[in-house]
Write the structure tokens for this entry.
Amino acid sequence: MMVLMATVWMCPNCQRTFGKTNQGHMCAPAMSEDEYFATGPPFERPIYDEVKATLLAADPDVRLEYVSVGVFFKKKTNFAELRPLTKWSKLIFKLARDMNHSAITKKWPGPSRTYYEMRLHTPGDVTDEVRGWLVEAAAEDA
């Protein structure tokens, strides 16, 4: 049985977890890891494995949620997402600081975080710098 932090709310209908009570969301049950990867593109799983290993090694309290659009990495909220596209996986993560980097394809400010988007074609695209950003995003989502 998974023990959740007191700040996490579980939707009674879909059993997904969120950082705010009664968080607005598309109420659909999450899938298991096996269900999710049963139909994905072949390049997706190795990239996911690299991101997952990085985050769980840094923080075993990171939760993973598999939904039809991708994989959400959570502590209190979604701090990172992997979404498969036709030729790559889109990685989205949020940080409390603004930065510029050639690997970032899009960024947009939120109320307290800046959201970043980048393309991952292979597990090798998860560089030490990207790992650092992911670990930072997880640490900030306390």
About this structure: DSSP finds three helices and eight strands in the chain.
